[in-house]
Structure formats: C-alpha cells, structure tokens
Amino acid sequence: MENNSVGLVKTQYVTFKDEFFFESGRVLNPITVAYETYGSLNEDKSNAILVCHALTGDHHAAGYNHPDDQKPGWWDNMIGPGKPLDADKYFIISPNFLGSCFGTTGPASIDPATKEPYGLKFPVFTVKDMVKLQKRLIKYLGIEKLKTVIGGSMGGMQALEWAITFPEMVESVIPIATAGRITPMAVAFNTVARMSIMKDPNWNNGNYYGKTPPVDGLAIARMAGHITFLSDASFHKKFGRKYATLEGIYDFFGYF
Q1: Helices (H), the chain
Q2: Residue from 9, 124, 104, 88 nearest 52 by CA
Q3: Which end of the chain is least crowded, N or C, by CB within 10 Å?
Q4: Name one Pfam family in it (predicted).
Q5: What is the three-class DSSP state of 195?
Q6: Secondary structure (3-state) at 21
Q7: Do the beta carbons of residue 223 and residue 253 sit within 8 Å?
Q8: In degrees to the nearest 10, what's the CA dihedral of 140, 144, 147, 150?
Q9: DSSP string over 90-121
C-alpha cells in the first residue's frame, strides 16, 4: 500500500425515511445512500469536497476496502495525502448516485411494498434527482457549503447541476469531460445500447434478479458506449489498419 494512500476505507450507509420526490412526480421512501469519505472535516466544516462518479463507476474512489484488494478505488491517483484532492487538507465525500446497483437505492433494491426488486417499476430519474439526493447526504453530514464539486462524464453533469440548482451551497465546480446535455447522436447510441440489453434472451422484461442476467446484451451495449468515449488517437490504436501476425493479412477486427 502506498505511503500517500488513504489506506483502508469502509463504505458507509445512511437511510432517509422521509419521502423523496422525483422530477417525474413519483415518490419513494425509504431511500438509502452508500458513500465513502476520506480525510477529516474541519471544525467550521468548510473543507468538504464532493466527488461525483460516472455512469459505470461507484462510490469507492480511493483506498482499499479489504487488505487483500488488488486494486484501489477508481480515482486513487487523485485522492490521498499530498495528491490533488489532498486528504490531509480536505474532507472528501464520494457518494454512490441514485439508481445505481452498488449500494444506493435503485432498481435492484427491494420494494418494501412487494418484497421484490423494484426492477422496471423504479421511478425514471434524472441528474437533478441524483443531485437532490446528494444534497440530503451533505446536509446529513452537517455541511452547509462545499469547497467544490468535481466529477467526470456523468459525474461532471452532476457537478454542473449543483451549480445550477444549489449555487448557494458550492464555492466552485470542476466538471471534467462533460456537457450540459447530450447530443442527438449520443441519444441514438444510447438507444442502440439499450436495445442490445432488451433483446438479450435473459432480459426477461427487466425481471432478471436472482436469475441469469443479460450479460451478452450488456457487453454489446458497453461496446457501443465505448465507441463514444474514444479520441481519434485511441480509435487508431485500437482499430487502425495493421497487419496481423499470421499470413500477412490485415487485421480489420480491432479489440475493445
């Protein structure tokens, strides 16, 4: 373990029992948030930083959950003593966003009314809904104002939403590789990805919990998404024309 690692960290959970109102008008309660923290909150609670993860990320942004973990959290090179998000100076909060499958209430969570997973009955949610739930967490921690909110991709969208919806609660935001809205082409790619999952025989109308999940459809969906992430240089590296090692033919297939 590196000297400037935050070391072993434990996922924390808080459950809010009062009603949560979605932008759609749907209401849900109770609702649980999974999160990790790094560093210490100072006396006047003015050194808090919120880290927002991307679509396929989670709240485990730095350090290790278990001594035998082979890899640290996804942003370990950024969070820790002496690193850009310095855990010796700041109190860094990394929540799992609303609707995820990594601890915060989402479609895989149990509906108290039916004792079954919500599945497709889970409310449609927006980035604004994610941020509204994050605000509850920040208030629960006794913090009135954040030093900054930082995130990349969909995490960057959350950072922008903080500045729009709760400007009085943030000193600054750091949105990385993101946008205020996705383009029609991105919506089209998302449609291809979604249909890939829904056409998997194991999709079962979204009721696959406790059964074989639609992993083949998800893999194809991830490929479609991956295409939208790549720079021109990355495209050439992964899919550029090059001779294969056998028989002097071109390798036109590339690898994700």
Answers
A1: 127-140, 154-165, 184-198, 215-229, 232-239
A2: 104
A3: C
A4: Abhydrolase_1
A5: helix
A6: strand
A7: no
A8: 50
A9: -EEEEEPPTT-SSSSS-TTSEETTTTEE-GGG
CB 91 within 8 A of CB 48: yes
pLDDT digits (tens, 9 = 90+) for 231-248: 889 888 888 776 566 565
Q: How far apart are CA 54 and CA 73, in angstroms?
A: 13
Domains and CATH numbers, the chain: 1-179 (3.40.50.1820), 182-256 (1.10.1740.110)
Round to the nearest angstrom and report the end-to-end CA distance of the chain: 30
Q: Closest Cα partner for 117 from 203, 210, 25?
A: 210
Beta strand pairing status for 148-152 and 48-52? parallel
* Residues 6 or more apart in contact with residue 211 via CB below 8 angstroms: 202, 204
Rounded average pLDDT per 10-residue block, the chain, 256 residues: 87 97 96 98 97 96 96 97 97 98 96 94 97 98 98 97 98 96 92 96 94 96 88 84 61 58
Question: Residue length, the chain?
Answer: 256
- How many H-runs (helices) and E-runs (strands) does the chain carry? 5, 14
Find tokens 């949610």 and name the residue: 125
The residue whose two tokens read 């820790």 is 80
6, 60 Cβ separation under 8 angstroms:
no
66 within 8 A of 161, measured Cβ to Cβ? no
- Which residue shows structure tokens 């998000």? 85
H/E run at residue 33: strand 31-38
